[in-house]
Amino acid sequence: MHQLYSSIKFYPFFILLYLNSCNNQTSENPSNIKPSPNLISFESLNQNSTKLADKNFELIDNSYSGIDFKFDLGDFYNRAKEYIFATPMGGVATGDFNGDSLPDIYLTRPSGGNRLYKNLGGFKFLDITESANLDDKSIWGTGAGFIDIDGDSDLDIYACGYMTPNKIFINNGDETFTEKSKTIGLDHVAASMNLNFADIDGDTDLDAYLVTTTKLPPEGTKFGVNFVKQEDGSEKPVIPDEIAEYWQFIYLPNKKVHKTEAGQADRLFLNENGKFKDVTARSGIEGNYFTLSATWWDYDSDGDPDIYVSNDYTGPDMLYNNDGNGFFKNIIHSSIPHTPWFSMGSDSGDVNNDGMIDLFATDMAATSHYREKVMMGNMNDMGWFLEHANPRQYMRNALYVNTGTNKMLESAYLSGIASTDWSWSPRLEDFDCDGLIDLFVTNGVIRDSMNSDISIMAEKNFKGGSPEWRKFWTNQKMRKERNLAFKNIGDLKFIPSGNSWGLDHDGVSLGAATADFDGDGDLDIIVNNADGLPLLYKNNTTNNRVSIKLIGNNENSHAIGSSVKLIYSGKIQYKEINPVKGWLSSNDTTLSFGLGETTVIDEIIVKWRSGKTQKLHSIETNQKITIRESSKYNTTDDKNVNNLPLFSIMKENKGITHQESIFDDFNKQPLLPNKQSIRGPSLCWGDIDNDGDNDLFIGGAANLPSQLYINNNGKLKLSDSSGLNKHAKPEITCCIFFDVDSDNDLDLVVGSGSNEFPIDDSAYIDHLYLNDGKGKFVLSSNYKAPSKPTSSLSTIDINNDGNLDIIVGGSSVAGSYPLSEKTYIMLNKGNGNFVPIYNKSLNSTKLPNDIKVGDIDNDGNNEIIIACEWGPIRIYKNSDNGLQEITTDLKLDSRTGWWNSINLNDFDNDGDLDILATNFGYNTKYKASISKPELLYFSDFDESGNFDIVEAKYEGDSLVPRRGFSCSQLAMPFIKDKMKTFHNFASSNLSEIYSTTSISSATKYEINTLESGVFINEKTQFEFIKLPPEAQIAPSFGSAVTDINEDGILDIVLGQNFYGAQRETGRMDGGLSLILLGNGDCSFLSMAHRDSGIHILGDTRKVQSLDLNNDGSHELIFGLNNGPLLIYSRQ
């Protein structure tokens, strides 16, 4: 049945091909020395004679494979807490320990001892544990791997133990092993999860990072606190060192402190002539956390391995940057926007084929509405943590996209892989050999401790760790879940493929490892199951591929930390050799590259951990290539070879910041989707002192002063006598400089908004400040604005009298979102006198976020264009008959969104104005479409006299609530009485929770478009074109249009991210702001962040382009809410 293979054909080398590789040395290898021919060998891959199944993967029966490994949990009762809270079990490793080119398998379990299975070929394996001297039933097996620890070229085995000694089995070369952990210094006894080997200091031998997790305090251990005197005279509570691995403090603002459980400190061991020395204390590795996994990856491409550490629960994930000498610095706060909350396994790989390694980290976010709501629990219990963790932690997966700068994008929602259920071991590999890295994830859990009904019941009835508690959880069933696979379709998008590929096993799967078990060049999979026998999958993919095995010429014989780049048909693939991936798993080091229909690889570039580089040219596919490291190649140093980016920050204008006032929007409206009080900063530029350059006004947040900066040859200096910082109460949400009174200087109109004050409060009155011609401003009494919050302002001569009037966008009614104030006109009566005029045509505008004026139809008269929240882009024509809405006529009414800003320009060079409209993008939990929009209902659902918000989405054809049981019943107590349990709430649709009558009678809001894009003006209607995927990676609240690359074509600059979402949603912060280069036809290409120099972590709200220092080149200005003003100039 399984005799699928042709005989192996081995070629020592291809003379012509090899000479080609030797005669094409780059300038990085100036010696031009030709290595001996045996450095490179080629071997034809085994080919499947036929594809045996419709699915890409074939599950091999265990009775055929001989893998009879039975997972044994042992004494669950006494290990209940460890099993439930740490799950230290389920490791698997692949590697060719006996050098026969057939990768073998090592499986771990918490009881009964680990097992080694020798690959016999043809997917048959033999358990040789006893004969190999590996039988050790005392070990609580966790992570394991094949690694050449002693540098003799054959693979040894490490096996970690949870509270049992770690084991190092040295390969004797005759299919037997000798345990030598004590001899070499790695017999550490701890809550060990895994050992990750890498050459951290570049001395050619392998060092080790030991991952440890939580353990129970010994009986009788008492909690205690020390107090440390602070500079202000206060005393800070700290955990004593002797109990720091059991408890920790998390320090919050205003000197609040939370006590949580801690874990053991991870360890770093330096290899000193074959003996391992604990150098943790001087390495920079820090913290006592529930560490579950760690992944080596050279994220900054400097040749030195860095490491991502996944910490469960309240422990922050770590990203340690390696300085090359074995010292590490945690840079996660400055490089990554947020992390998973309950981090488990992680994996690295180049998901977008840009030659940089990305990283995927798993959590336990549910893929179904029911499971999501059952798991949510009481959000108030951990609300403090969601709002103050640094960096923020959210219960969802994270995909960190490497930008080649010191900051990363995060795209899991956009990529379709934010939720993969209770996920342990991710594997990023090209499983269908099409040239794009796919994703496989294992799922399931030993006990369903995240089921809120079950956990609340247990907490209420039993003391944690008591005999009754242990018995209760011992008697619970495992929760089986489907393993998932996702096909990479490019543009950072993945689609579910587990069913079509045959990888959708339903069970409790933990560790997973890959290897080419049959020598055909594609990767097969082995999975360790807690609820049954392991899963062995044979990959039946038929696309072209190539396998590459690297052999180092030093102690690092399997080239850990080396990389391989393939270049072909204008494409690249890039992989590193770091075997430890996922959950307690390690993988064979032979690399597999899928190539689709490509038959020839233009170039293969190998960069060894030593820094040496080798290149091969014109390589045929469907081969296994073995490359041995030459000792004669010169070492290269390409750490700083990148070209300078286009823009850099102007150092002379650092220190200008916007400070946000503290206000809890959710106290008044607990189910409010997003804060309404953080609209700043408002920025406007104008030459207020008539000296020929633009000065800057920054509107202040509520109860904080505004600021005026005077420009002197590009340097901005704060004015302390402008008169604009005297009125600190209003929150300035928008502003305009223009000459109100025709005295040839710029006056200032400011809009006051937010929802931090009562309805009709004087803080909502807009103001006019008159300029004395020298940059001093006086408040005008002739601007008769109502006391209603404002969101946006724009000028237009509405009545053609030669005076500019002001269109005022009404913000949401204070404390009553989504109700909207009216949008109206402040009519200029001349000499600086303004009165409000309400036009019925504008009544259709609700929740306007931005207003622009432009001649859309080229008739000589300006139209009013308004970006609305929960509505379309609205256009009003100004004619002799007054204002007339033409939104429907122009086919704009069909696209409703959360439109944040607009910009008018001719993007397709056809002579008319198109509309750039920014939105929330697709990297959030919200997913709107024409057929399945996002919905919001507003009504007095509980008949309390107060209106409540109910957000809704589609789950299949059923309408279900966005918010959870806990927060919903806190806002409307009748829900608790009616639903009673999380199960009931999760099982009910919207009408079953709130009644059909209450839903049908509520005011309904809906959106069907979340993408940012350009509405192309086609004269009689507008056609919507989405911006590239990178533009959808975060909400955008501001844009600028300019010619970045000076090619005569308009480009776009987007500000990205939003920090105002309610805590259940979390920050929408996956972006770094972005430049899009125009092609002249309304299509755009994203400019790499490393090339542009623009990579901003923060809540960017405003983007502007202007020549600040009159040098003929425009600067880019980014205004961040509660953050700095960043001004970039060309280098």
Characterization of this structure:
The protein is mostly beta strands and 1131 residues long. The strands form 21 sheets. A six-stranded mixed beta sheet has the order 7-6-5-4-43-42, with no helix packed on it.
Number of strands: 80
Distance between the termini: 65 Å
Strands of the widest sheet, in order across it, are: 7-6-5-4-43-42
| Helix/strand structural class | mainly beta
Broad shape:
globular
Tally of helical segments = 18
For the biggest sheet, the summary is: 6 strands, mixed
The helix content is under 10%
| Rg (CA only) | 32 Å
Low-confidence stretches: 1-36
Which structural traits does this protein have?
1131 residues, mainly beta, six-stranded mixed sheet, 80 strands, 9% helix
Summarize the structure.
The protein has 18 helices and 80 strands. The protein is mainly β.
